[in-house]
Amino acid sequence: MKLEALYKGCTYHIYNRGINGCAIFNNEDNKKYFLKLFDKYLSDIVKVYAYCLMDNHFHLLINVNEEEKKVVQAFSNLFNAYAKAFNKYTERTGSLFEKHFKRINVTDEDYIKRLIVYIHLNPKHHFDLDFEDFMFSSYKAFISEKETKLERDYVLELFGDRDNFIFVHNERSEFIEQQYLLE
Which residue in 151, 183, 158, 177 sits closest to 63, CA to CA? Predict the structure, then answer.
């Protein structure tokens, strides 16, 4: 399988899951540690447009600031450091993540917006959790006034403003809820 290259200046949907669908996060501390490692290895070489950490998978929407080799190595460092710590913590051995993290080059601005909403609504879609209160997605950081390393200004500008950002998320969330009722 040929992997999508990670070109400087391009935007990518990065995602992966636990090998055989296993949990990659057992608790909040695991997720906090993953985010801490992400910050350590990647905060200076990618811009983050959205993220969500679920129990058995994660989604990131990033823009690459550096050359591919440096970015791929940073992701490798992140995943290896996290897997070693998780395996030690859970007394397991072997691979934690599926072989290669998935990456899709996203060039269309409308698709970027849909991906941001999709990523933020993952808790609702998978577990019928309230996406607005979910601690491990970037949604709350975008509607907050607190300082963040996320690309808040760019993302909110994509949606027009903060109010429309919230409106679009809620509209899509209601659609998902209606789909549950039809099942």
Answer: 151
Mind listing the domains of the chain with CATH numbers? Answer: 11-182 (3.30.70.1290)
Cα separations in angstroms, 140 against 53, 71, 172 = 14, 26, 16
- Nearest C-alpha neighbor of 101 from the set 156, 57, 163: 57
Query: What pTM value is reported for the model?
Result: 0.92
Interval 97-139: pLDDT, tens: 998 899 999 999 999 999 999 999 998 766 666 888 899 999 9
In angstroms, rounded to a whole number, what is the distance separating the alpha carbons of residues 59 and 116? 10
The CA-to-CA distance between both ends of the chain, in Å, stands at 35
> How far is Cα 41 from Cα 114, in angstroms, rounded to an integer?
27
C-alpha–C-alpha distance, residues 117 and 102, integer Å: 19
